[in-house]
Design brief:
B: alpha/beta; Rossmann fold; Dimethylsulfoxide Reductase, domain 2; 23 helices; 34 strands
Amino acid sequence: MIAAGSVPTGPRVVTSRMDQPDGHTYEGYVRTGGYAALERALTRMTPAEVHDEVKAADLQGRGGAGFPAGTKWGFLPAELHPRYLVVNGDESEPGTYKDRMLMERDPHQLIEGIVLACYALGAAQAFLYVRGEMALAQERLAAALNDAYAHGKVGRRICGTDFSVDVTLTWGAGAYIVGEETALIESLEGERGMPRLKPPFFPAVKGLYMQPTIVNNVETLANLPYIVGEGGAAFKSLGGPTSSGMRMFAVSGHVERPGVFEVPNGTTTFRMLFEAPEYCGGVRAGGRVKAFIPGGASAMWFFEEHLDMPLDKPTVDKAGSMLGSGAIVVMDHTTDMVAACWRIVRFFARESCGKCTPCREGTNWLEKILKRMLDGHGRPEDVALLMEVSESISPGIAWPPRQTTICPLGPSAVSPIASAVRRFRHEFAHYVAHGRPVDGVSSPFARAMAGAR
Amino acid sequence: MTDLAQRPATAVALTIDGRPHAAAPGQLVIAACADAGAHVPHFCWHPRMSPVGMCRQCIVEVDTPRGPALVVSCMTPVAEGQVVRTDTPQVKRAQEGVLELLLANHPLDCPVCDKGGECPLQDQAFSHGPGESRFVEEKRHYEKPIPISDLVLLDRERCILCDRCTRFADEVAGDALISFTSRGNAMQVMTFPDEPFASYFSGNTVQICPVGALTATPYRFKARPWDLEQVESTCTTCAVGCRVVVQSSRDELVRLQGVDVDAVNWGWLCDRGRFSFEAVNSPDRIATPMLREGAGLRAASWAEALGVVADALRTADPSRVAILGGARGTNEDAFAWAALADALGVVRRDARMGDGLPLEVLALPQATIDEVCAARTILVLGVDLKEELPVLYLRVRHAAQSRRSRVVEVAPRTTGLAPYAWRAVTHEPGMQARAIAALLAEPEVAAQVAAGEVAVVVGRGSLIEDERWTLAAVAEVLAVAPGARVLPAMRRGNVRGALTAGLAPADPSAATPAVLGAAAGGEIDVLVLLGADPVADAPDPDLARRALARVPRVVSVDAFVHGSNAGAHVLLPAAIHGEKSGTTTNVEGRVSDVARKIVPRGTARPDWMIAAELAAALGLDLGLDSLPLVHDAMCSRVAAFAPARDERATRGEGVVTAHPVPLAAPRRGGSARDRSTYDFRLVVTRTLWDGAVATRRSPSLAPLARPAEVVLHPLDLARVGVAEGADVRIGIGAVVTTLPVRADASVARGTAWVPALRGDALEPLVAGARDVVDVRIEALS
C-alpha cells in the first residue's frame, strides 16, 4: 500500500474548478482568472506566438492517439481559407468520462481554449461537437457560449480586438464511431457517421466541407488557457521527460474510489494511481489486480507485472498497449475474463457502423461466439476460431494493430480477445469443458444479462 | 473514370506480381491489376463509379517504406516504382478472411436465387474463398423479398452492403431514393418512408448488384443463367443507341443487360429500354397478315395479303401514295422501303411523325455524345433528356457533375437535368429565341459561350408548337457561337437512320403533316404505315384520324393493332427488336448492329423482307433478296453508310456517320405571338412512361404509365382557384375539355404542361393548330 503524500503531484491545470460550485458560470470562471489568457494572447501575442507556446508545451493530444497538437496545427496548408477547428467532444470510449467532466463543470475553460486555438490557426469558425447522450454538458456549454458571446469572448471583435470567431454547438445522435475524426466530420456535415478513407481525406487537408480542418479533443484544448497563461515551458516541466504537463485519467472498475484524476504526466505509475489515497485508494476490498485496461476498451490489456510502469505514452506504447484517451478499467481477481471479454466485444459489435465487411461481420461473429460460450455451448474449436476471426480483422493480431478495415474500430474488438485468450486461455477452456466459469470468478453483469433473456 | 481522352500521355511504371506494367496516372491499383491480367476479387468497386473501399475484398500487398502492407487496391492509386503483389500467402489469407465474413450472414440460397450461376459472390467464393464456413451462429433474418419499387425487389438477407446500388442511385442517376439505414450488423439498404425507388434507371442496380439481393420483376424466376443464350445488340427503344446483350431462354426474350461502351451508354440502360422487351412476347402481337372484310379483319396468307398490297400499289398513281414511318425499324428496313418507293416513284415519305425535329438540324456541324460531354458549355435546348433520351441524360449529368462542362438549359419547363445545370431558364413555347437571346446577353453567359467549345443538344420543346421555333432557337446560338456543334435530340428509335436511308421527305410537302393534310383532303389513295401510329404520335391526332378515315387503302406494317391501324385494310405482321438483324443509327449518326435472338412471333417478318417481297409481287427487281444484300446495297448507294459497310465496324461502339442531305443553315426567325395574360400556353412533352405501345404491352411497365393531367405552377393553380386533384375546364372558346390538375413548380408560370399520352384529352384543343396553343383554364362551376 502506498502512503499518502508519497506520490508525485502537480497543480490542477484543467481540473481547478471541478469542486467549485459555480465553476461552470461566466462569473465563477472570470473570478478564478478565466479569460485572462485569451485577453493577453489577443492583445499582446501574435497567432504564431500562441502556436509556438503550444509547440513548446509539447502538448500531446488527449483524444487517444497522443499526437502533438502543435505539430498537428502545423499541417494546415498555408493561406487556404476558410479553415475550421472542430472540437471532438464525442467522448464515447467505454470507461472514458474526463471530457464530460470538463464540459459539465468548466465549459468556459474549453471555450477559451477553442478561441485561443482559432486565433493561432487563423480560423474564424469552430464547431463544438458534443456527444448526444451528454445532456448536462450540452446544456452548460450552450449557456456558457451564450454568456461568452454576451461578454464579447466569442463572436465579433473578441475582447475589443479585430479577431472574430464563431463557435457552433452540435450534438451527436449516439454513435461511438463518430469519435473517429473523419466520421465526426461526416456527421457534422449531416451525413451518416461513417469514417472517410485516409488518404485522401486527412482532415488537415480535406476536412469539413473539404476544407482544411483541425480536429482537437476537449481536454487538449482545455489545456490552452494554462499554456498561454503560464507559458509552454512551465506546462512541459510539469510532466516527465517524454510526456508533458498534467493529464486526466478516468479510472473505473474494481478500485475503492473510481473517478477522474489529474496526475503529472509520465511520472505517475499505474500502481500509484490505483493505490495512493490521493487517487483510487486501492483495489476493491483489498483484492488483487488480475488485469487492467490502460487506455480505453480498444487497448490491449495489462496485468500485474505492468503495475509499476509509468503512465507515459512512449513506455506504454513500447509495452504493447496504449494510454489512449486515459480510460483505465481495473479488474480484480474475481473477474470472469470470458465475460469481461464478451462485454467489451459486444460494445464494439453494437457500435460497428456497418460500412466495411470485416468489422460489420467480424465483430458480430466474435460476439456471438463469446456469448455462446457464456451460455454453456462453447466448442473446443471456438477458442482458436476467436483468434482466426480476429486475424481476418487484424492480420497478425499485433500492436499497433494492422487492419483489413477502414478504421480502427474493428481491430479494437480484437484487443480484448487477444489479451484474454493469450493470458487466460484456461478460463475459456473451462467454459468449453464445463459450461461455467472457473471457480472463484463471477460476472454479475453476464448473469444479469442471462437472466434478462 | 477510364476516359482515355482525358489521360495524360505519360505512364506510371510499376510491378505487378513480379512483372513490369505501365499504368495510366491516377489509375487505381485494382484497375491496373486487371489490365495486367491479375484478377483481384472485388464487390464494391465498379469502374464507372467512385471507389468506396467498403467490401475490403480487393486487398493486395504493396511495398511501403515500412515493409509490405496490405492495402485495398480499389482505394490505392498507382505510383511510380510501386511493387504490387496479388498472390502472396498474406493476401490469400486476408482475401479468404473477408470472403468468409461476407458469407457469414449470407443465406446461401443459391439454388433458388436468380443470380446463382452468374453471381460474383458465388464465383469469387469459389475462386478466392476459404472453401468452407466456420460460422455456426444464427444468420441475419429479414422479410424476403420486399418491393422497393414497381420493378425492383430487395432481398436484404442476400445483400452484402457493397453500396453499389445506393451509389448508383445517388452518383450516377441522381435519384438518391435508396440509402443505408440502421447501422452495424443491422445496416440495410432501404427506401425512404412512402417513397419508392421510382427511378428511371432502377434496373441498373439489379444488373450491378454483385449478389441476388436486387431482382427485377420481368426476369424473376424466368431462367437460369446457364440456360440463357445471348447476343450483343443495340437498344432501339429511343435513339441513344445503348449497347445491350439480348438474352433468351427457350426462344423467349427474358432479359436485356447493358454493355459498357465508352462512346455511348457506359453500361447503363433506362428501365424502358431494359424492360420493354416484354412486349415482344405479348399475346397481342399481330401473328399473321390480316385483310379487312367488311367491318372486321380476317387472317390471310402472306401471298394473299402481299397480292392485295401489290395490286393497290400497281394501280395507284405514285403521287397519290405515301409511306409514313420507318423509325422503329433498322436502317436496312428503311432502305428497302425507300428503294421500293424509288422504284415506284413515290415521293411522299417521312420517317418522322411531325413531332420531332426539322431536317435542317442534321445539316449543322454535328457533335457526338462524347464531344457534347467534353464541351466547355453544353446548351440543352427544349428537350427534357431525362424523359426522352434517359441515358444521354446520365452522360450529360456526369459531364456537369464532374465539373468538366457547364450545362445551360433553355426549355419550356424545368427538366430533370436542371438541378445540374449552371443556368436553367424556362420559356413559353414559341418564345425560345427570345429567351436564348436574353440569356446569351448576360455578361457571364456571354463570356462562358465566348470561351468556345460549345455543344448544343437540341430537341423539340413542345409537341404543339411549330418546329420552326426550334430552328430559330438554334440560330440564336449559332449567331454568337458559330463554332458550336449540334446533337439533334431525335427521340424515336431509328428515326435518324431511316431519314438517312431514304425515308426523308424531299420537301415539306412530302412530310408527315402535309401528307396527313393531303390524305384528309382525299389526295392519297394508298397510305403505308411502317410501324407508324400517327393518331398517337402526330401533334394533331384529329387530322391523323380524318386522314386515315379518308384513305381508301391503308396498309400497316406493325406488330400491334393500335389507334392508327385498327381500321387499316391490310395488316402485315412485323418482326421487332430481338427478332431481326440489321443496323440502327442513333442520335449521333452512330451505326451499330442489332441482332436477332429469337424467331419472330407468328409469321412476322422484318420490314425489309416485306418490301422485297412486295417488289417481287410487283415484278420489280430491287436485288434486295437477303439482309447482306440490303446492307451492301445501302452502304454503296447511301454514301453516309459507307463506313458501316464492313459489318465488323458496326459491332461494339459502332461507327459514326453523317447525314448526307445538304440543307441551308437555319436563320434567326423571331418568336411566336405573345400570350394574353388570361391564357395559359400549352406545353405538351413526352415523358418516359407515356403509354407507348411497347410500354402498354409490357406487363411490368404498363402500370407505370402516367395519368392524364394538366400541371400548373403552384401560384397559377392558386390563381385558377381550385384544389390539387380537382378537374379543371381547359378551353379555347367553345372547344372545351376537362382534366385533373396538379401543381408543380417545374412548370413555368403562364404555361400549362400536359404530358403527352397516346390518345389524350387534348385532341379537340390542338385540332388544326399549326403553332402555339393558348387555352383558358377555369374551375368547373
